[in-house]
Design brief:
ATP binds at residues 120, 173. InterPro entries: Hyethyz_kinase, Ribokinase-like. Its EC number is 2.7.1.50. It is a single chain. The chain is globular. The chain has one domain (2-299): Ribokinase (UDP-N-acetylmuramoyl-L-alanine:D-glutamate ligase, 3-Layer(aba) Sandwich). With 300 residues, the protein is an alpha/beta fold. 52% of the residues lie in helices and 13% in strands.
Length: 300
Amino acid sequence: MRQRILQLRKRIKEEKPLIHCITNPISIHDCANVILAVGARPIMAEHPAEVADITASAGALMLNLGNITDARIESMKRSMRTAMENKIPVLLDLVGVACSDLRLDLARELLRIGHPAVLKGNMSELLAVSGLPSHAIGIDAGVEDALTEENIDGVSEVLKAFSRNNQAIVLATGKQDFVTDGERVVLVQNGSAALSGITGTGCMVGALTAAFLPGCEDNIAKEMTDSIEAGVWSGVEMELNGRSGNYLAAAVLGTALMGIAGEEAEKISRGPGSFQVNLLDEIYGVSDRQLLDLLKIEIY
């Protein structure tokens, strides 16, 4: 997993893929900047008349339901269809689906159009889309839905089934982030309380993860196969390879990078203003060595 993460970072910096984002205006500036910070190129086009052309030329598509308009709804549907037709990986961020029937209906329609590579949301949002009771407070997860030692086994089974049913990696954000491909679970335990003090950090996690999805395509899979044949990979790392394993690694990398950057930014910040600036600098500047040393994950 750790070497897979480093390969993804390196490839994105080298190839600078275009990442098409249809997202909310609250965090559009920050999402664009974090994509740039990891070496990819953002385009935030959302007019229905042009999104199909732009999606077709992109390496990945991010759809974020955080602020819905009629135009954005139509654009998301068109881009989703184009991405499916062209085998372009999609990250669908389920912002607010637990508090709005409009967003929930849109999310379900997008899932009928095709299968995203990654389905992201907080625990309340993922429960809502799964058709289970949830306790959201606006766009925030309810305390009753939080992942705990007592409920982790039950939650794991629900989210693994949701992952298999939708043929997608499921990324549940929270105090500890939960990532599954339907069989394996990775808990990412990096993060800082300061991240909740500024708006848009959840959206930025989605943007970061989307930025790494183009690094998961077939030639990477071939590189992985060659490495396995050469005896380079250990048992756990071999188990996490293959196309779904690559997308799993992209979700872990996007999530962990935000958490580690938050931890490092908090150390040198006076408040939310300086933290926001320092966060972007840390996303850009964290070294591979730091990433490996500070990464806190549990795989089971």
